TrEMBL record, chains A, B:
Keywords: DNA-binding, Transcription, Transcription regulation. It comes from Proteiniclasticum aestuarii. This is LacI family DNA-binding transcriptional regulator. It comes from the Bacteria. Residues 3-58 form the HTH lacI-type domain. Transmembrane segments: none annotated. GO terms for molecular function: DNA-binding transcription factor activity; transcription cis-regulatory region binding. Pfam families: LacI (PF00356), Peripla_BP_1 (PF00532). CDD domains: HTH_LacI (cd01392), PBP1_LacI_sugar_binding-like (cd06267). PANTHER family: HTH-TYPE TRANSCRIPTIONAL REGULATOR GALS, LACI-RELATED TRANSCRIPTIONAL REPRESSOR. SUPFAM superfamilies: lambda repressor-like DNA-binding domains (SSF47413), Periplasmic binding protein-like I (SSF53822).
Length: 336, 336
DNA sequence: TTGTACGCGTTATCAC
DNA sequence: GTGATAACGCGTACAA
């Protein structure tokens, strides 16, 4: 049986109002003796406040919702994890919904969260979202709570957007590879349907062009961000015997490339240089360790929390933030 | 402004009761014409049910809560992710709390979830919990909802418990190594404060003894499950020049061992065999690929869901389940 | 076929 | 200092 304020009020022979005041630590009003008595009873009976009822009465949930494509993805798991820890410090609870990268689930998730009464919605949209922004925008617009987009955004969205700078990240990585005297470089591209692919390849192309390195259509290989696609494409790339380096659009494909290279008995980076993007935790543990681009989760969270705090105060607050990345020089890219 | 049933009732010129009936798809009562009219208005006004109010009225939340130590840990992220997907199919929402492996947060999490009104609590307790079971047990006992423990359990807990069989997993792995004619085997142990460490080392010792392989105290090396501890201890182990194999209590430490071995120019598994435990996703991608033990998440989830379904029906249902593991033979363990 | 009225647990306003 | 009581939005038994 659940203990309510009513039970405590009866036991203490006071009104519910008084119990409420005491349990919420409101100053004044009640005598110290009564305060103690009520608190004692609450403790003994193991009273726990019914958040649902409070929410109904106050129309305030002290809860924010977040929708991410996939918790099995370390990036999002880490994001959610930190967000929850930080928001807890602020007295907020975080509701998490995973969309499995399906628009349908994004939209259902929004409904689900809103129906539960959140004070703010954060979302990393599904990859396909950018192709169908209308639904999102109309849905988010007449939401009664502020919304922000993190990492995976929709350009047209008018609320706050926070993301990493793919263009400059890949740009400076490419620059670094070129600085190591590589001229013939293959680019292993990711899935072009994914939100963040375009920025990366453009960063690569811009850097190559800036340094007068020719890039032909056939120097771009189409992977899908998976280990397998890197593994499968290595032979095709390497056996051209024209490249001295391969830049992969993410670490997983770079692993695939390296794995096949080592399997073929090649020496890295002497026979060929390979780089990745994301700085996955294992990248440091490989032999050779992987040169890649890091996206600092702390920087992201700092901005996210700043924007959340502001949005909670002013629901119409809006800001577009692009976060810088760091080039991580390790041993998989060599100088020639 | 939020749309409520009242708004719809006014617009349709009927009572709130009628609107409620229609929106909850209750059979009979209302005329088809009125049904359509009400649904249309709800759609136009973008009505979304106030779950908070419903919960207060029905005392049913269609929500379960889960507490895990850490979402950045793939195992738990995967667990939560699948649980959420499966429970969604059942019309349930999953509230997630991370404890950061601190008892304090476990207990606070329980309070937090209960105050929000969950129909069931699932928890993977903090590692230190087994040392202080009293608090948990008293807290969970007079909880008004059923509770189950997953993976990280407290032995004394009387509700349902579901976990993997560490003993038999490590036992058969050791057996396999011995079958490959290894006799002098070093064991790289994990943190003994962690819930699942004991079972693993016991499985190793039992198998060694069963095959008449001597194990001395100094053949057990104390790691802490981290890559670094494996990396740091490799030299100490290898330079004994007595071992032909090292069994690590998890994959991360095995990575550390392998990394240092390769750095020293050794050939695996010719110079020394190494095995892990957990079958982390990257274990397949290493050179050589890592022989390890897999804990099938699908099997775990099947059992978890079965128990949840039963517990939701009968709050006093209780079962103690131990799930089998699979030996994954790859290339890091060689025959001698 | 539809409406009335009450309860869910809490907060907040006002009265005493 | 303390108590009554009206919201909050919804579900439901009982009337009509």
């Amino acid at each position: 049986m659940k203990i309510t304020m009513k039970d405590i009020a009866e036991e203490a022979k006071v009104s519910i109002a008084t119990v409420s005041h005491v349990l919420n630590n409101k100053p004044g009003r009640v005598s110290d003796a009564m305060r103690e008595k009520i608190k004692k009873i609450a403790r003994e009976k193991k009273y726990v406040t019914n958040h649902t009822a409070r929410q109904l009465a106050t129309n305030k949930s002290n809860t924010i919702g977040i929708i991410v494509p996939d918790l099995e993805n370390y990036f999002f798991a880490s994001m959610v994890s930190r967000l929850q820890a930080k928001m807890r410090e602020r007295g907020y609870f975080v509701l998490v919904v995973t969309s499995n990268d399906e628009i349908r689930n994004d939209l259902e998730g929004i409904r689900l969260l809103v129906s539960r009464g959140i004070d703010l919605l954060a979302i990393s949209v599904s990859n396909a979202a950018q192709n169908h922004p209308e639904e999102y925008l109309s849905m988010l617009e007449d939401l009664s709570v502020p919304a922000i987009m993190i990492d995976r955004i929709i350009k047209e969205f008018k609320g706050s957007k926070i993301r990493f700078d793919d263009f400059s990240g890949m740009n400076k990585l490419t620059e670094y590879v070129i600085d190591n005297h590589h001229r013939k470089i293959a680019f292993l591209n990711g899935d072009m349907n994914m939100a963040r692919t375009a920025g990366r390849i453009q960063g690569f192309l811009a850097s190559m062009e800036a340094h007068g390195c020719a890039v032909d259509q056939k120097d771009i290989y189409d992977g899908d961000y998976s280990f397998e696609s890197g593994y499968a494409l290595f032979d095709a790339i390497y056996d051209q015997h024209t490249y001295t380096a391969i830049i992969a659009a993410n670490d997983m494909m770079a692993y695939g490339l390296m794995n096949r290279a080592i399997e073929r008995g090649l020496t890295l980076p002497d026979d060929i240089s390979i780089s990745g993007y994301d700085n996955v935790i294992f990248s440091e543990m490989l032999n050779p360790s992987l040169t890649t681009v890091n996206q600092d989760m702390n920087s992201l969270m700092d901005e996210v929390l700043r924007v959340i705090d502001l949005s909670l105060k002013d629901p119409h607050y809006s800001e577009n933030i692009i976060i810088d990345t760091q080039l991580i020089k390790r041993n998989s890219v060599g100088s020639i």
